[in-house]
Amino acid sequence: MSRNRPDTTFLAAVAKSLDVCHNMVSFTCTAHVVLPSTIHRLVVNKPKLTDLKLEAILTRGEMVEVLKLNHLKSLALDYPTRIVLDQLPHLLITNMGHLRSLSITNSIDLAPDYFTNMLGIIPQLRVLRVQDCLGITHRDVLRAVGKHCKSLESLAVTIYTSSVNRDLLWPSFLTLRHMNIHIRQCPKDQLGSTVSLLLDCAAQAALESITVHHTDKHDIPDAILTEIVKHQSSSLKRLNIINFRVAPEQVDKICSGLHQMQQFAFYMPSNVASRPNVLAL
Predict the structure, then answer these.
(1) Where are the alpha helices (DSSP H) in the chain?
(2) pLDDT of 65-116, one tens digit each?
């Protein structure tokens, strides 16, 4: 279902189609509005449904219906309302034996204490994405992960504030394989140290992919590349540097220092090369 608001005829057709999809394993809805019957039909006779992604604005009654799902392995909530977040711990408890992946994005209601308690329900989590949630910083996410979910394999966070020193409650990842860092706000003179401190949490892990994405175009601080090359030279296969300008000498540093790299995507100013601004090697 698409984000554009569909007409009720289409919504009714989707709802009816769920009646015959007994072997459904995955359902994604990015429409803000759904018919109540859609949620009810989604949970009835769907024993194989393990992957759920919802953006829809659900009522309390519809969320109670979602609580009937008890075999979820992957759950993604985009723009979750307070009603959804209020019921989320109950859904996690119901699926705590199965859930391995959780994504919460674009929430204005997600708070640090609530988030920490929530992760305590699912310490076996392997994939976590918490991005574009204004009420929680990357520091809050790392503290919660350090307390409950030290065996993560994939982590995606958003930076809204700078970090001067590494928090003692942050984890030292050993099993992490993929890291995605999106910078929304950070003083330019603290950008390198802030991202480097986050990357340092995975210094003992064998990362296979790193994505560093800035909302605005910036020159990438050399400290970030130094941190990546220093600790991930023998394992990193994919490096994506998005919305950062990368100097030719930095490209040389990366290519010569990351011995296992298979994919390198980055931005280069057009005045230093006649190639397209976005390059992938």
Answers:
(1) 8-17, 36-43, 60-66, 82-94, 112-119, 138-148, 191-200, 222-232, 248-257
(2) 999 999 999 999 999 999 999 999 999 999 999 999 999 999 999 999 999 9
Structure tokens at 94: 């119901």
Calpha distance 112→154 (Å, rounded): 20
pLDDT at 168: 82
The letter for the amino acid at 33 is V
Q: With 50 as the cut, is the pLDDT of residue 277 above it?
A: no
Helices 248-257/222-232 angle, 10° precision: 10
- Per-residue pLDDT of 205-227, as tens digits, reads 999 999 999 988 888 999 999 99
Contact 95, 70 (CB under 8 A): yes
Q: Contacts by 222-227 with C-beta closer than 8 Å and gap 24+? A: 222/192, 222/250, 223/192, 223/193, 223/195, 223/196, 224/192, 224/195, 224/196, 224/199, 225/250, 225/253, 225/254, 226/196, 227/195, 227/196, 227/199, 227/200, 227/203
**How far, CA to CA in Å, does 265 sit from each of 150, 155, 176, 180?**
29, 19, 21, 14
Report yes or no: 93 and 67 within 8 Å, Cβ to Cβ.
Answer: no
Type of residue numbered 99: L
Given a contact cutoff of 8 angstroms between Cβ atoms, the answer to whether 168 and 197 are in contact is no
Q: Where are the alpha helices (DSSP H) in 71-209?
A: 82-94, 112-119, 138-148, 191-200
For residue 115, give the 3-state DSSP assignment: helix
